[in-house]
Amino acid sequence: MKKFALLVAIATTMVSGRAMAQNVNLPSAGAINTEVQFNPFNDNEQFKLDGVKIRYFLTDKDAVRLKLGFEMNNKNTYSLENPGEDADDVTKALYNYCKDNGENKAKTGKFSIDLGYERHILTTGRLDLYAGVELGIETAWSNTNKVEGLCEKKEDNSLDFEKPSSYNFYTVETETKSTDGYFAFRAGIFTGLDFYLYKGLYVGTELGLNFNNKSFKDGEMTTTNNAPSIKNDERVTRKDITNNSSETSLKFEIVPTLRLGWSF
After folding, report:
1. What is the 3-state secondary structure (H, E, C) of 148-211?
2. pLDDT-based confidence at 180, cuts 50/70/90?
3. Over 60: is that where the pLDDT of 44 sits?
């Protein structure tokens, strides 16, 4: 990611230098801007696209904008202890099914939409300075699925407990929905700066005062216990998870993203 960021910086410098003698197309009435926002500075060294924005200029100075954000993550982990090559069959079976082994799946998602108005205060040379207001909503959801391998000794005392056949091996599956989910309303005032590199190509950044109110969603937990000792009609249990938590914030912030767009 560091190499990518360096290449972007070099390419931007080269384009900017070559474009000094070229005209740039600052936005005017009827112009449409499309841009993407991405974060080359995140800690996990992954390229992350944070959102897509469209602007429409009503006049040379006034524009409305629509910003969409979407995110989806899937993560699967699997654990299996190793008892060693010299272990007997019973020991291997117990490790394979009864030593906190299992599979964990986690799915999370996020969607946001923001509507705003911009007043372009200063448009000169390659610079476009503006200010505006924005309203938006955001929703997030999550779903986790955990499968555990377990075992229990059979009730028949005549069986030899030194053999794997003396044990019942089964799974317990737990599915949890929306424990990390939320719905948020946000509003803000902002100012931004676009720098046009070549014709309609520009980069930019924004800072602003943002209000955010977040309400967390209720969840649900479903557990399926496949133990032979449990009756079939009792194996599935459901539990509602009530979450009355909320979070409100008001702060100045600079959005840590690079905005890259085109005006046409």
Report:
1. EEEEEECCCCCCCCCCHHHEEEEEEEEEEECCCCEEEEEEEEEEEEEEEEEECEEEEEEEEEEE
2. confident
3. no
Secondary structure class of 97 (helix, strand, coil):
helix
Q: Is there a contact between 33 and 261 (Cβ–Cβ < 8 Å)?
A: yes
**Could you count the other beta carbons within 10 Å of the beta carbon of residue 145?**
16
Position 263 confidence tier, pLDDT thresholds 50, 70, 90:
confident
C-alpha of 28 from chain center: 35
- Pairing outcome for strands 236-241 and 32-39: unpaired
Cα distance between residue 157 and residue 179, in whole Å: 43
Tell me the C-alpha to C-alpha distance, in Å, between residue 16 and each of 126, 198, 199, 201.
Answer: 10, 7, 11, 10
DSSP for 117-151? EEEEEEEETTEEEEEEEEEEEEEEEEEEEEEEEEE
